[in-house]
Amino acid sequence: MVSDRLATARLATCAAPGFLPAGERIYAVGDIHGCVAAMDALTQVIAADLAARPVARATVLHIGDLIDRGPDSAGVVARAMAPFPVPGVRVVVLTGNHEAMMERALAGEKRAAAGWLAFGGWDTLASWGAKPDAGRCDWAGLVPSAARAFLASRPVLHRAGSYVFVHAGVRPGVALIRQTREDLTTIREPFLSSTEGLPGWGRPWVVVHGHTPEATATVTPRRIGIDTGAVLGGMLTAAVLEADRIGFIQVPGA
Question: Rounded distance, CA 7 to CA 4, Å?
């Protein structure tokens, strides 16, 4: 793993289970969960890596779960909505199950509201200025309309080369077109333990995902897991994918 001391050092890489087209690099960022300081630190390291190793097409891809549990979900969302500090870098933000829960809660679904609060929703509301006595009918007015519209419009998957990027995973053996939104944003098993790949054109897709915290980033022939528990005292991880190589950048989480 590579820490925030990367600066202008060359990123260590190894053979990846998938590939990207020539001239393309993707920095796939794991679950941030309101850890804005870690997000800022990781952004600085990515910028340093781009300065040291320019590339024709660079994408920073957030795997979902920007919000909840951490100290500043509002700050994380604001940064995700803004252009990346390095000109020309594309930013892609996927929907996670926490964003989906928030949207249902703000729309007035009682069961979703209870679930959202149980999984860190109050921390998100507080980051937008909610007071302890705020009622459920007040929640939608606390979240800026631009932020809510942004989160509600995020895609659930992104494809590049032989990689499929989703928040949680896929249902094993099921073609991508038949995967449901719930599969892509909430699944754990049987995805994590399955040895069956996601059928693709000519070769199976490699799934890059977050959602399930692991002590270290996981790389297998069929999946790359990048949720390393930033909000749980672990690290915020970015998988750096280019050609048929993979490297990792990590900074301390909350």
Answer: 7
CA atoms of 165 and 223, how far apart (whole Å): 10
Q: How far is CA 251 from CA 20, 59, 152, 220, 254, in A?
A: 25, 19, 28, 22, 10
Q: For residue 191, what pLDDT is reported? A: 96
Of 30, 8, 6, 26, the residue nearest 16 (C-alpha): 26
Please tell me the distance from the alpha carbon of residue 187 to that of residue 185, in angstroms, as a whole number: 6
Q: What are the strands, taking DSSP E only, across 77-189?
A: 90-93, 157-160, 163-166
Mean pLDDT over each residue of the chain, to the nearest integer: 93
CB neighbour class for 169 (10 Å; exposed up to 12, middle 13-18, buried from 19): buried
In tens, the pLDDT along 108-162 reads: 999 999 999 999 999 999 999 998 787 888 888 999 999 999 999 999 999 999 9
pLDDT in tens, 53-68: 999 999 999 999 999 9
Domain architecture of the chain: domains with CATH: 13-252 (3.60.21.10)
Give the position of tokens 């754990």.
188
Classify residue 95 by its DSSP letter: -
Look at residue 63 and give its three-state secondary structure: coil
Written as one letter, the residue type at 112 is A
Q: What is the pLDDT of residue 118?
A: 94
How large is the greatest C-alpha to C-alpha distance in the chain, in angstroms? 56
Buried-state track 84-95, b at ≥16 Cβ within 10 A, e below 16 = bebeebebbbbb
